[in-house]
Amino acid sequence: MRKLPGFIKTTAIGGLLVIVPISIGLFVLAQLYIAIVSFVRGFVDALPGDLQNSAGLIFLLTLLTLIGFCFLTGLIVRTRLGVAVRRWAKRNIANRIPMYNALTSLTKRVVGVDGAQFAPIEVDLFGSDARLLGFLIEKLPDDRCAVYVPSAPLVTAGQVYLVPASRVTAMGAKMGDAMAVVSQWGVDARSLYTRSQPAS
Predict the structure, then answer these.
(1) Tens digit of each residue's pLDDT (9 = 90 or more) over 33-62
(2) Euclidean distance between CA atoms 8 and 148, whole angstroms
(3) How far is Cα 73 from Cα 169, in angstroms, rounded to an integer?
(4) Which residues are bridge partners to 22 per DSSP?
(5) How far apart, in whole angstroms, are the C-alpha atoms of residue 4 and residue 157?
(6) Residue 134 in contact with residue 151, Cβ under 8 Å?
(7) Antiparallel, parallel or unpaired: β 132-139 and 168-170
(8) Which has the minimum average pLDDT: 82-91, 123-132, 170-179?
(9) Strands 154-164 vs 144-151: parallel, antiparallel or unpaired
(10) What dihedral do alpha carbons 175, 181, 183, 187 form, nearest 10°?
(11) What's 118's DSSP letter?
């Protein structure tokens, strides 16, 4: 019973460190969306009367503007000046935000930036014929692997295990397809087995 308050405290703090940066990101994105909607609405008001009240047109133009803004920002940060500013901001601002590096790395893995995705795998945890569907996080120097096993149907909830590489088998499937199978309690799992090969 003495450990219960400590467990509650550390768990709550851990949840807070995840919620705060996500909330900040969503708030900034929401404010950007509102600003773009206002800009687009002013443009639509100048169109013929039949188009002025088109909610679909406003949404489409807002979405295209948001994508264009993100694309333009991506181009800018690829320039020499953009790289310098990004490094300065990461060193002096971003690294002080809780969970920033972890969330950035996770986002890159999920969307497949630079080809870095979590590979769907089968993992043998118990030395039996039962296999768990998971994702290869990284290979360790001692011939072990860090793997993440989600709890269906919540892909974002699960456990991290350190297992020998010999117990991990790659599936040759895309991360998005594996996530969809987990979120659907295993429905359409056969689509993941196009080709399998040992991860070691």
Answers:
(1) 888 888 877 777 776 666 556 677 778 888
(2) 24
(3) 39
(4) none
(5) 22
(6) no
(7) unpaired
(8) 82-91
(9) antiparallel
(10) 170
(11) P
Neighbour tally for 149: CB within 10 Å: 17
8 A C-beta contact, residue 103 and residue 97: no
Residue type, 177: D
Q: Which helix (H) or strand (E) holds 135?
A: strand 132-139
The alpha carbons of the chain give a radius of gyration, in whole angstroms, of 22
Identity at 43, one-letter amino acid code:
F
What integer best gives the mean pLDDT of the chain? 75
Amino acid at residue number 86: R
Most confident of 53-67, 115-129, 137-151: 137-151
CATH 2.30.38 fits 117-198, yes or no: no
Cα→Cα distances 97→11, 18, 25, 149, Å: 19, 11, 11, 27
Residue 198 has pLDDT above 50, yes or no: no
Residue 11 near residue 90 (C-beta atoms within 8 A): no
pTM value surpassing 0.85: no
| Amino acid in position 102 | A
